[in-house]
Amino acid sequence: MKKVLFVTSEAVPFIKTGGLADVAGSLPRYFDKDHYDVRIILPKYVCMDERFKEQLRFDTRFYVKLSWRSQYAGVLESKANGITYYFIDNEYYFAGTKPYHNIYEDVEKFAYFSKAVLEALPKIDFHPDIIHCHDWQTGLIPVYLKTEYQKDAFYQNIRTVYTIHNLQYQGRWIMQVVKDITGLPEYLFTADKLESYGEANYLKGGVVYSDIVTTVSKTYAYEITTPSGGEGLDGLMNARRHDLYGIVNGIDDTEYDPAQDPYLAFPYGIEDAPQKKQENKKQLQRYLGFAEDADTMMVGIVSRMSSQKGFDLIESVLDELLADTRIQIAVLGTGQPEFENIFRHYAWKYEDKLSANIFYSEEFAHRIYASCDAFLMPSLFEPCGLSQLISMRYGTVPIVRETGGLKDTVEAYNRYEQTGTGFSFCNYNAKEMLSTLYYALDIYYNHRDDWNAIAERGMRQDFSWGRSAREYEKIYDRLCGNGNG
User: Fold this and answer.
1) Smallest Cα–Cα separation from 166: which of 377, 331, 380?
2) Three-state SS for 145?
3) Are 294 and 327 a contacting pair, CB within 8 Å?
4) C-alpha to C-alpha distance for 446 and 110, rounded to whole angstroms
5) Residue by residue, what is the 3-state secondary structure of 278-336?
6) For the chain, what is the mean pLDDT?
7) Is cis: bond before 13, omega within 30 of 0?
8) Is the pTM higher than 0.90?
9) Strand runs (DSSP E) across 97-183, as ranges?
């Protein structure tokens, strides 16, 4: 039985700000429980829902030496979905109305968290074979483990896997401040270790000191080795390319199941999807104030509104698209104020064609995935992406840019070979995106049988977490010496 500890700053169902929580909280449930004991440890945030706090059981308490400080740490425990969760408790660090505040507070918070996790292991009587760290917030764990904790026999044979969910976020801060916070020796703050462009870099430390580095799609694993995608660390990623793996994220196929989705008025499976999707669409059209017309192509957008997600491309073609095309667009999300306001403007100008819903609702997101014909996701970069996987699960045809996980998971439609699960374009160019949208509209309106076949192929794809878990198991086996990975 291999013992694995996931270390993360967030995990469903307890705390979530983004996709990291879905991965960290969902993936452990899909490992082979006869061979892997996978547990999760994360901060006990004051902002966690009270109903979750009531489930926690006190385990132990101790003090953490963080440079010249000595800080309290409590460990609490809970179980959810058959998985053991541990929580590091310290209200000084984990107070506030949200998990993250600002970089100068967070670098100390997660330095403390990293040491508290390592200190907790012998006290909770769990000796992991592998510590699986996630994103910059846990980047110091491999650093501490491979340096100061190597003096203790308990820690000497623990291996590390480090998963990058988004290389853009690196945990960079003033060198001298980080030295003071962490108490790490001077020799670690050099260009081949934690130093990056004159600052200390937590993510870089995690990459340098981990045994294996993974990221969330094969294409993104390649992109981060290039100057355009490496966010200043492409040289390091190239140096580690033989230990760098891309494993596509999955989705929870019980939560995202159109046949059993409680948010849908008309649940459906593969066989009755074309008819039932039209019924769901008409209901959504009524709700949004659109004309009820099951034949009008409806495009969904569920996203954080940012340049990374391609919203500047959408902005530059939206007026032309809405003025000249028989189309309806349902938008859900929040983000940069300029993009929120652009959608508000066009929802006013084209109230019969565009609905701007500047908030987030899980129920409404499910209804958009189920009711729309197409889903637009023209990202500048996308490490993995979950929305395109969900849309295919619901028979909603994705229209994406070929980057990262979007390239890996959406096969471009080939009209002559009758293959593909969506539509895609290569260059980050608004006219290229618009041309692809027009092509998709042509197939939808003039070749409906082909469109329905694209949607059906998408619904038949396997993007469950089980497939991802098998890939991680190979890496764990390799690290433990009984597999080739």
Assistant:
1) 380
2) helix
3) no
4) 55
5) HHHHHHHHHHHCCCCCCCCEEEEEECCECHHHCHHHHHHHHHHHHHHCCEEEEEECCEC
6) 96
7) yes
8) yes
9) 130-134, 159-164, 172-174
